[in-house]
Structure formats: C-alpha cells, structure tokens
Amino acid sequence: MVGSIKEYGEVWYNEESLDNILSLAQVRLRCRVTMDTSVEACMNVHRKDGSIMKFTEYRNRLYKFDTAARRPINTSNNAVTLYSSPDFVFLETVEENKRLYTRREIEGVNKARALYHKLVYPSQQYFEKILLRHNKIRNCPVTCEDAQ
What we know:
Strand content: 15-25%
Helix content: 25-40%
Distance between the termini: 24 Å
Shape: elongated
Number of strands: 8
Structural class: alpha+beta
Order of helices and strands: EEHEEEEEEHHHH
Strand order of the largest sheet: 3-4-5-6
Number of domains: 2
Number of helices: 5
C-alpha cells in the first residue's frame, strides 16, 4: 500500500506487517539526519516543520521511534520539541507482544505456523475449518485457537 506521512511524503507500507521500516537512505534524501554516538546512541531526523524525530537504539540493535517521547532538544540556540503525533501509528515488537501470552499459547502458534508452512499455505478458512475443525489431519496437535 502507499500512504503519506505529514511533513515527509509518500511511503510504502504493509497493513498486515507488525512493523514498517523506513530506509535511512531514503529518509536522508527528504530530511536532514544527524547522529553522534559519542553523545548518545540515537538518530535525529530533522523534519521540514522544524520538529525532530528521535530514533533510539533498541536492544536488538535497530533504531525505533518512541511515540510517547516529548522533551525539548537544543539545536543551535533553539529548543525544539521532539515529535509525538497522531500522524503516526507505531506497533510493538513481536517480543513485546509475546509477553501477553502464555508459553503454551506461543508454542501452539509456532506449531500452527509450521503446519501451515508444510501444507504450502492454504487459505486461512480452509486451514481452520476444513483441516482443523473437521479433523482431516489425524492426531493433529494444532487446534483452531492455535491457528487463529
């Protein structure tokens, strides 16, 4: 899909993806990007409206934008507020989402995903209703709840 980010422009995204990623090579063509790792492990994207989006290093070594962050940054002699806006929708990582489920639920999902792959990706409806609900696979350890 194609969308637009205010003060940035056109972006491509996947509605079904947990996260969407901006290419630093593409961002630098539209906005000034600064980084000084001797001061802090972060990248600052200076937007056309004067706001700064601060991407901090996450534990997986990728940089993320914290939509809750709102604090002033001094650039030259001007205080600028970091951007936090309803213009953006950011999702949690898979790791953060896994904390919401039990170990058994996660193992069930992993088994369902493996079976789905082995069956060469049938439609979700066929996978759940025909194969799992109607027991077309003998002694299948995967439940409909796992598949959902």
